[in-house]
Specification:
GO molecular function: lyase activity
InterPro entries: PMDh-L-like_dom
Strand content: 5-15%
Structural class: alpha/beta
Organism: [Collinsella] massiliensis
Number of domains: 3
Keywords: Iron, Lyase
CATH class of the largest domain: Alpha Beta
Strand order of the largest sheet: 11-10-9-12-13
Radius of gyration: 22 Å
Helix content: 40-55%
Distance between the termini: 57 Å
Largest sheet: 5 strands, parallel
Number of helices: 21
Protein name: Phosphomevalonate dehydratase large subunit-like domain-containing protein
CATH architecture of the largest domain: 2-Layer Sandwich
């Protein structure tokens, strides 16, 4: 093929078919993809593992299955083992007979077949299905500066921002192709210049802003640009487990409500700590976020339920998947909320989703039995894939995930509002504050291992 990229001898040989026609076509696809975005060269993928966004066996994805078969037959498997986004189905999640029929016959009928293909191509392990592959329990955590070939938007923005790895917001299947040949086009967020900030976002709220709401506001304002956020370190302190959880959910909202692939938080994220405001471009725009601005964003969300005042039939938490730290913290909050309301079990069917490896670790703690006693279900499912079933999408579902709100009919509420709805307590904010104030003491008394 004719191209303008400066390729190495190895890359040129792959493109010319020296290593087979299949690899040549994969390389050609990547070269054409890169040239669209002005890439002048290809660079090696340097991470230990890859991550694929396409994890669901939709009946309509026949071309994908054909492509996978071609790669497998040619021995053109991934040079890295990889994780993949969450599975779309879990029998533990509430669904009726008709919904199950749609799931299994008309939507995800190829799930088992596709998972078999993924295992042949290099899946890390049988249960390596999660959108939070970077969790310690999963084991796919890139290092600072490593070059990735990922597509999942919430994982890309976390890897770029919180871990300081380098990855563009790729399209599905491009992630696998980069791993198959071992190279990706060099442009955008792989470059030093592409990681500089186009916006300075000043946080002037009177309390810690809701992660999903703040991320939504910034994503809708800056779109695909890079924001440099100042004033958030006042509320986050240091980059500990709580801050990582906050940035996970915040980043997912910036990526889904906008198209952010990288953000910097002054005093918190690694490149901001290292380089400070030298990351900000000259002439960068400024966006000020105060309490009123967050309320304006919250009030702007459309309610797409058929009956606006319908009682919720299901609550999903964990899009992206929850961490072990979050599962424990929410166990405390739900128990406290139920104690205030005088109830023993949640009043809205509630599903917490997390990576299979995180669920396994959680089940080894005393928290698992305590949470189960409240009626909450812990699952590895992808809430978004569940809600794509039109019979599920027509239900009144609530969530504190701005990603799930954006892509489905689920209705967004803050964490405190969710706590009130699912436990029936009158003041979720007061309950959450009380739990935070006494964090650890009651859990220790109950045998929790924080």
């Amino acid at each position: 093929m004719q191209h303008t990229m400066q390729l190495t001898a190895e890359q040129e040989a792959i493109l010319e078919g020296v290593y087979g026609d299949t690899l040549a076509r994969v390389m050609e696809t990547l070269v054409r993809y890169g040239e669209i975005f002005g890439a002048t060269k290809m660079v090696p993928v340097t991470s230990t593992y890859n991550h694929l966004v396409t994890s669901f066996g939709l009946k309509a994805l026949t071309p994908v299955y054909d492509l996978m078969d071609q790669l497998i037959r040619a021995g053109a498997v991934s040079k890295q083992q990889f994780s993949a986004d969450p599975r779309p189905l879990d029998p533990a999640v509430p669904s009726n007979l008709l919904q199950n029929l749609v799931f299994k016959k008309f939507m995800y009928s190829k799930q088992d077949f596709y998972e078999g293909q993924l295992q042949k191509l290099g899946l890390m392990q049988k249960d390596a299905f999660t959108c939070t592959c970077y969790m310690d329990e999963v084991g796919n955590t890139p290092a600072l500066g490593e070059v990735l070939s990922w597509s999942e938007s919430s994982a890309v923005v976390y890897a770029n921002s919180v871990l300081g790895a380098r990855c563009n917001r790729n399209s599905g299947i491009i992630d696998l192709m980069g791993s198959v040949v071992g190279f990706v086009p060099y442009f955008g967020l792989l470059t030093d210049d592409g990681r500089r900030a186009d916006w300075v976002v000043e946080i002037r709220t009177t309390k810690k802003p809701e992660a999903q709401l703040l991320g939504s506001a910034i994503g809708m304002k800056v779109m695909e640009d890079v924001p440099y956020i100042v004033g958030l370190d006042r509320w986050l302190g240091e980059l500990d487990d709580d801050a990582r959880d906050y940035l996970k959910d915040f980043g997912a909202a910036t990526a889904s409500n906008g198209a952010v692939g990288l953000y910097h938080v002054e005093g918190i994220t690694p490149e901001a700590v290292r380089d400070g405001r030298s990351l900000v471009r000259e002439g960068a725009q400024t966006y000020v976020i105060d309490d009123a601005e967050l309320q304006r964003v919250y009030d702007s969300y459309p309610i797409v339920w058929k009956k606006r005042d319908a009682a919720p039939k299901l609550c999903f938490m964990g899009c992206p998947h929850m961490s072990l730290n979050q599962l424990k913290a929410w166990t405390d909050k739900i128990e406290a909320g139920l104690a205030v309301s005088g109830r023993e079990r949640v009043v809205v069917p509630t599903v917490f989703t997390a990576a299979p490896a995180v669920v396994e670790r959680f089940n080894e703690t005393p928290y698992a039995a305590r949470l189960a006693a409240t009626g909450v279900i812990v699952s590895y499912i992808c809430p978004l894939m569940y809600m794509n079933n039109p019979l599920c999408g027509s239900m009144p579902v609530i969530t504190s995930s701005n990603k799930l709100r954006t892509y489905t009919t689920a209705r967004y509420y803050t964490d405190d509002e969710i706590l009130e709805q699912i436990t029936g307590c009158a003041d979720g904010a007061a309950v959450a504050a009380s739990v935070a104030k006494h964090d650890g003491s009651e859990s220790d008394a109950k045998g929790g291992d924080r």
